[in-house]
Amino acid sequence: MQKTAYICLIIATLCWGGNAVAGKMAVGHISPMMLTFWRWFLASGLIFAISVPQLIRDWHVARRHLPLLCFYGIVGYTTFNAVLYSALKYTTAINVTIEQAAIPMTIFFINFVFFRMKVSLAQIMGFALTLTGVALTAAHGDLASLLQLTLNFGDALMIIAIVAYAVYTVSLRWKPPIHWRSLMALPAFFAFLTTIPLLAWEWSAGNVLWPDTKGWMIAIYTAVFASLIAQILYIFGVERIGGNRAGLFINLVPVFGMLLSVAILGEDLQTFHVVALVLALSGITIAEWGKPAAA
C-alpha cells in the first residue's frame, strides 16, 4: 500500500515539475490569470465528464461540506497556481525553485503547531538532505551563488503560494468521505469560478494576453497533467501516508523541473543534476525510515 503511495507521489511531483517548466514557457504566450482560467475551465470540464454519476451518488454527503470543498478549490488550486504564474514575471527561476522547497517545512510547522504531530530527528535530517539537493539544483551546482539572492515582489508572492499549498495539504485531513472523483470535481469547479474575477482584474488592468498556439498547448498540459492527474495522485498519497510524509515528496518538484528543462528546453544535463536527484531521493528515504511510530 505504501509503495503504491510513493509511486503516486513521484508521478504527481513529476507532473508538477512539468508545470513549473510550463510556467516558464508561458511568459509571452499567455498571461498568468488567463492561463489559470483556462487551466481550471478545461480541468473542471474533464473531471465533470467522468464524475457526474459519482457526484450524484455523493451529493447527499458533499453538499454538507461545500464550504470546505470550496476552500480546497480557492486555496489549493486557484491561489497557488495564480500566484506562482504571477511570481514568474517578477523573480528568477532560481528563487522560485528554492522557495517551493519550503512547502514541506511549512507543512511540518503547521502540523506541529496546531496538531502537535510528532516529527523525528530522521525526518528533520531527511528534509535537510532533500533541501540541499534542491538548493544544489537551483544554484546550478554552485551553492555559493545562493548568498547573492535578493527578495523582490515575486519572492513575496511565492511566500503566499507556499503558505496556501501547505494549508491545503494539511486541511486534507478533514476531507469528506466521498469518492475521489467528487473530491476533484467540486474543488475544480470552485477553482474555475474564482478565476473569473481574477481574469476580469487582469483584463481591466490591460495585462491580458490571449493564448497563441503555444499558449493553448501549455494550458492543455496544465489542465490534464498538472491539475487532473497530479491532484488525484497527490490526494491518494496524502490519504495513504499522511500530510507530513507526503509533503516531503514536494521537494522532488524542482528537481524534476530541472530535468524536464533539460529534456524539453534543451538545457545541458550536468553532474550536479544527478547529485541533486540522489540527495532528494535519499532524504525521502531517510525521513520514511525514521518516521515516528505514531505516524
TrEMBL record:
**Top-rank lineage group of the source organism:** Bacteria
Q: Which InterPro entries match?
A: AA-Vitamin_Transporters (IPR050638), EamA_dom (IPR000620), EmrE-like (IPR037185)
Do the record's keywords include Transmembrane helix? Answer: yes
SUPFAM superfamilies tied to this protein: Multidrug resistance efflux transporter EmrE
According to the UniProt record, one GO cellular component term is: plasma membrane
Q: Where are the transmembrane segments?
A: 36-56, 68-88, 94-114, 121-139, 151-171, 183-203, 215-236, 248-266, 272-290
- Protein's membrane topology: Multi-pass membrane protein
What are the residue boundaries of the EamA domain, all occurrences included?
5-137, 153-286
* Places the protein is found: Cell membrane
Task: Write the record's keywords in alphabetical order, separated by commas.
Answer: Cell membrane, Membrane, Transmembrane, Transmembrane helix
Pfam families in UniProt: EamA
The protein depicted here goes by the name: DMT family transporter
Q: Which organism is it from?
A: Neorhizobium lilium
